[in-house]
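Blinded run. Sample ID left blank on purpose so nobody reads anything into the name before looking at the predicted structure. Input follows.
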Amino acid sequence: MNCPRCNAKIAFTKTRCFNCGQDLSGYRKIISISNSCYNKGLEQAKVRDLSGAVFSLKKSLEFNKRNTDARNLLGLIYFEEGEIVSALSEWVISKHFQAENNDADRYIGMVQSNPNRLEMYSQTIKKYNAALFSAQHGDGDMAVIQLKKVVNMNPKFIRASQLLALLYMMTDKKENKVRAKKLLVNAGKIDVTNTVTIRYLNELSDIHLKGEAVEKAVPAAVRKEPEARKIVPQAEIPDAYKTITPYKEEKPSVLPFINVIVGVVIGMALMGFLIIPHIQSKKSNQDNKDFKNYSEQMAENNSDVSMLRNENKKLTDELEELKRQNEELKGKGSEGGATVQESYDFLAEAMQYYLDNDKENAAKSLAKVNEETLSAEKTKKLYDKIKDETYDEASNSYFVKGRDAYNGEGEYAGKKDYDKAIKLLGRALEYSPDNTDAMYFLGRCYQQKSEPEKAKEYYNKILEEYSDSPRVGEAQKRLRELGE
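Blinded prediction complete.
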């Protein structure tokens, strides 16, 4: 047991913390009640009283939210009931309270180790939400289609089985009620005390899965012996003894042409009555199939839209909460510098520019950060990394602009602006104090403005502090021009 005040490790039998003197008698009683509720929940889970176990474990966590054993068991029960999101939530919270030697690591790994299984869980949730949306808006048939898929993918998803059973029960068809009872019986095997399942089963008490009247076998039909072909005596056959007339040359007749025309008409009639209806029926079936697929796709799209709206609302609420927390976290920085909140905002802005490969603007934003307010080691490393990779480039960019302003080139073509050049070159030195090119041109600007003392200051700085710079020779030359 840990002391609630100083977190020191204390024996459970102790009534007072040896480290801070905190009275532990009441705290010990709370821990005992939490453990008792956990033990009760464990016993209930062993006999598949999952609803009762959930109630007991939630009570345990109300007394001690750090009871990771109770939280892990609650996650396992949710997992058994098909509530994957709730299970993962409990395990993540458990790991937050106990980072080491926690069974939640194994449970989370069990779910996340198989991408296909994780995707299957995600699909079941989406389809269940789509079905629920359809059922709430009166489209029961589409809801049944979606829920069948959910139950096939995850037979232990109790809520999906209950909703599908309810939709079957609403049809008042006996075969659907039989399907509903099968679903509820399977759900009852997972959680034997689920009140919703029990209530639905009571509604179906008149439906019996076993002992139903079995359809009697239909006796084989008595086969009738085919009637013997009646033999007609030759005397009864007309023209049996008719005289055969001699062969005569047939005269041309229009009868064959009439037969052809009649045959064509009969063929077209047969096509109209037999072939065309078959083609239309086949096309109608294909259209129905396409409409069904379209309806399913629309249901999934509607579900996705609904989920996105919910996620958008959730993110908006979280953003508002973060804004509120940011207002509370705003504090004072060092004298003349940015506050803690402002520094982190500028750092985030610099990071975004850095990712967009806009190193000049990244350096501008980073320059506004008050480095003293960055307390986290990782944050300081990020600050130093961006600074190392942007300041030199920003300094060189300002130097090029300042040189163009001094020479009247680039965007300053035809108009030398020494004041602007001084300002830009000064910014270059702010980002890189070792930029001797900027120092030299600052000296040149002041020399052109007839301010020799300031010019000498920059030339001498190059000679004294950067004796290996390529600008040393030019600085000496300019000093000689100024009389030194």
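Unblinding after everyone has recorded impressions. The longest helix spans residues 255-329.
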